[in-house]
Amino acid sequence: MPLTNGTTSLPSFLLRGLPGMEAAQFWLAFPLSAMYVVAVVGNCAVLFVVKTEPALHVPMYFFLCMLAAVDLVMSTCTMPKILSFFWFGAGEIGYKACLAQMFFIHSLSGAESTILLAMAVDRYVAICHPLQHSAILTNSRTAKIGLVAVVRGAIFFLPLPFLIYRLPFCGSNTLTHSYCVHQDVMHLACGNTMPNVVYGLTAILAVMGLDSLLIFTTYVMILKTVLQLASRQERIRASGTCVAHVCVVLAFYVPLIGLSVVHRFGRDLPLLVHVTMGNVYLLVPPVLNPLVYAARTKEIRRRALKSRRRT
């Protein structure tokens, strides 16, 4: 269908399933839906356990609740549409709905990156300055950090839909993913996309790039402090408190970096690689985060089992 810009008629876009596996998409939607259920139940369980247990009302678990809330919204604004596409063939998404989904995906990713940085700082203060931890990271300050994370993600990525809105669309309207992201929609435009490229890269570097560098620096300082501890048992106990967070950081940044590399340099790669990387980036963090923290954090396991016995 011919596409025009937002000043005349609004285009719609076609989502892409799994190239070469169209006949199997209906059945592949079942494991995807199972992962979505795990993400929703797991993150809701984290929110419930922390909310109902006053002993967990400390910054570390408040940050974990923020992470769970972001993962819930992220998966819910994308997975229902993907599942309706795979099950019912509803592969068309409206122009405004696509821009809204784009904004939520990018802004929530920015907020999650900020929360991961805040969690790294929390571990740094707890290990390197344990006596000052309660004075530095109060509950009110933790809430303000969460607000800053949301506002920061929104401010940096709010321009992206407006940069897309100014572009004319006159060619193909088929995306390379099962959802809308800025790089993907931008490549369908037939106008000057240089402002999109420059601002998109700037926003990614200013948020995810800076955060990842600061997280790495924080863990270098943590490692230095841990190696200076007197006993081996103290070193193991101190480093053990960081394992869950390191796993969550890797689950977020590795798919993000992989998807960015595919978008920037993988034009000649098979479309199946683009779609697979996109789905991994979208699904892995919301599914893994509650599982990792449930497996590595005895307080959450104990409280969850206690709540289950009560019911």
Describe the structure.
There is one protein chain. A two-stranded antiparallel sheet has the order 1-2. The radius of gyration is 21 Å and the shape is globular. The chain has twelve helices and two strands. It has helices spanning 25-52, 59-76, 79-88, 95-128, 133-136, 139-157, 159-165, 182-186, 194-227, 232-265, 271-296, 298-310, and strands at 12-14, 92-94. The N and C termini lie far apart (55 Å). Helix 1 packs across helix 12 (298-310), helix 4 (95-128) runs antiparallel to helix 7 (159-165) and helix 10 packs antiparallel against helix 11 (271-296). By secondary structure, it is mainly alpha-helical. Helix content is 75%, strand content 2%.
Strand-pairing-aware structural class: mainly alpha
- Amount of beta strand: under 5%
Could you report the average pLDDT, rounded to the nearest whole number? 87
**Major beta sheet summary:** 2 strands, antiparallel
Strand order of the largest sheet: 1-2
By DSSP, the count of extended strands is 2
Order of helices and strands: EHHHEHHHHHHHHH
- Uncertain runs with pLDDT below 50, 5 residues or more? none
Helix content: over 70%
Distance between the termini: 55 Å
Q: Which shape, going by the Cα principal axes?
A: globular
Q: Any idea what the radius of gyration is?
A: 21 Å
- The count of helical stretches stands at 12
Q: What topology emerges from the helices and strands here?
A:
Blueprint: E1 12-14, H1 25-52, H2 59-76, H3 79-88, E2 92-94, H4 95-128, H5 133-136, H6 139-157, H7 159-165, H8 182-186, H9 194-227, H10 232-265, H11 271-296, H12 298-310
Antiparallel strand pairs: 1-2
